[in-house]
């Protein structure tokens, strides 16, 4: 987000439950010289639909500077604890330093004591107001963690003067099943790689205390900044090369800002399973009985490994398996979009055993695709355009390969074959093509059988020409 003097920017997000606030921290700062460093990020305008309280809440994420500060840009990370287990597993709060010339410790008590071992506690800087007469030097260090609380050592040093620094602390139970926290510090073994044009900085490989089932979502925020005053304060922290076992923390600056060393900044990370990663598995099942075709379709929607919705139906004898696959994908996409509109969607992961239909979804207006796929593609891209932070992932899955979601959709499709037909048409172009090819193949075989019977010695062998018709 970029702006100038007296700037304030905000973005609307969705959070799971009605809360006045959620933890938030700065992960990028770009502020000019010759004025105090004044920057803050916060949540406000939390609103809940009184007619649909289960849908969560909407809130504004704000980035703001004030007075004569030149605000060129900033970024922030936030974490919604209500998405990740009961309140006794995650607690958090806000602390303010006030005016500070040196170290300023403060004892923090948890709202509720943690029942077993002391939790893991991390802290994000969310507000800075630092005098422009010297370097920006701030640090927040967590020490003496017990089941009941901890000590937060806020400090500046040398000749720097801090008018205020606010921090959000997050305490995560040591036995939490899915949330991992940690820190990139000046003692971490960092290196200075090539970070791109005009960028300097350090990276370090960090391992999670326990591996995830799949690559998690990682958000980062500063807990220490030490940058000189002679150039703009430009610094950024982000997570890169994320796997299920760890990631690369990158802290960098750019343009003419003073060189960044491992002592220039420290950052905290919070890693969680994707807040919402709906995995869609669609499958069709077609079978025949006494010369009649029965087409069924099914889909399953899951968040992580937990199924949250599913559906299926039958298209009867007037449709092909391709029509059924298209309908399965349409209803699956519609179900995912409906869920994602009430959740902070991070990834939409669509899995199908039909590569052609997945390819059609990549086009905003797929030419020649069945009407169901056309509707699915248009709806999907409309949603993605209005939710630019949500990523789309498409995966082909081989049929009958014992993929859990695919097997689940297979069972739904099989059970749906004898349901009343739901097709909004009496026939389809795919069915017409299939019947035309079937008649053509039958005519071909009948012709050569008749020809072979009446002209047995023409070919000099018994095998007759064969014809294979492909869709």
UniProtKB/TrEMBL annotation:
The protein, known as: H-type lectin domain containing protein
InterPro entries per record: Galactose-binding_lectin (IPR052487), H-type_lectin_dom_sf (IPR037221), H-type_lectin_domain (IPR019019), RNaseH-like_sf (IPR012337), RNaseH_domain (IPR002156), RNaseH_sf (IPR036397)
Domain of life: Eukaryota
Protein keywords: Lectin
Domain RNase H type-1: 280-418
A molecular function GO annotation: RNA-DNA hybrid ribonuclease activity
One example of a Gene Ontology biological process annotation: cell-cell adhesion
GO CC, alphabetical: cell surface; protein complex involved in cell adhesion
PROSITE patterns: RNASE_H_1
Pfam families: H_lectin
């Amino acid at each position: 987000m970029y702006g100038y003097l007296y700037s304030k920017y905000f973005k609307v997000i969705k959070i799971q439950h009605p809360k006045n606030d959620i933890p938030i921290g700065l992960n990028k700062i770009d502020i000019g010289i010759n004025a105090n460093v004044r920057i803050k990020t916060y949540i406000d305008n939390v609103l809940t639909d009184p007619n649909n309280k289960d849908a969560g809440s909407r809130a504004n994420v704000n980035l703001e500077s004030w007075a004569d500060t030149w605000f060129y840009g900033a970024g922030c990370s936030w974490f919604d604890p209500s998405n990740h287990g009961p309140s006794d597993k995650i607690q958090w709060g806000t602390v303010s330093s006030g005016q500070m010339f040196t170290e300023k410790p403060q004892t923090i008590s948890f709202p509720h004591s943690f029942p077993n071992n002391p939790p893991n506690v991390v802290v994000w800087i969310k507000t800075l107001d630092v005098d422009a007469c010297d370097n920006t030097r701030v640090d927040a260090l967590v020490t003496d963690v017990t089941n009941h609380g901890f000590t937060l050592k806020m400090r500046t040093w040398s000749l720097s003067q801090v008018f205020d620094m606010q921090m959000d602390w997050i305490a995560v139970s040591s036995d939490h099943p899915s949330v991992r926290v940690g820190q990139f510090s000046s003692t971490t073994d960092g290196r200075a790689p090539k970070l791109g044009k005009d960028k300097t900085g350090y990276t370090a490989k960090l391992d999670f205390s326990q591996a995830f089932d799949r690559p998690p979502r990682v958000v980062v925020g500063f807990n220490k900044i030490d940058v000189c005053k002679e150039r703009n304060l430009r610094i950024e922290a982000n997570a890169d090369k994320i796997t299920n076992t760890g990631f690369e923390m990158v802290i960098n600056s750019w343009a003419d800002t003073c060189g960044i060393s491992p002592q220039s900044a420290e950052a905290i990370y919070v890693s969680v399973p994707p807040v919402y990663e709906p995995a869609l598995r669609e499958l069709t099942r077609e079978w025949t009985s006494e010369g009649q075709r029965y087409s069924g379709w099914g889909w399953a929607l899951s968040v992580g490994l937990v199924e949250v919705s599913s559906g299926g139906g039958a298209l009867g004898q007037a449709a092909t398996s391709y029509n059924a696959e298209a309908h399965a994908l349409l209803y699956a996409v519609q179900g995912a979009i409906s869920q994602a509109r009430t959740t902070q969607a991070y990834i939409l992961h669509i899995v199908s055993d039909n590569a052609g239909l997945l390819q059609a979804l990549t086009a905003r207006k797929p030419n020649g695709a069945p009407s169901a796929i056309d509707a699915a593609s248009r709806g999907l891209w409309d949603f993605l355009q209005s939710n630019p932070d949500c990523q789309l992932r498409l995966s082909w899955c081989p049929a009958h390969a014992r993929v859990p979601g695919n097997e689940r959709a297979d069972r739904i499709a099989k059970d749906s074959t004898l349901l009343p037909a739901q097709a909004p048409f009496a026939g389809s172009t795919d069915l017409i093509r299939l019947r035309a090819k079937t008649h053509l193949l039958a005519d071909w075989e009948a012709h050569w059988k008749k020809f072979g019977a009446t002209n047995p010695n023409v070919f000099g062998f018994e095998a007759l020409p064969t014809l294979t018709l492909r869709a």
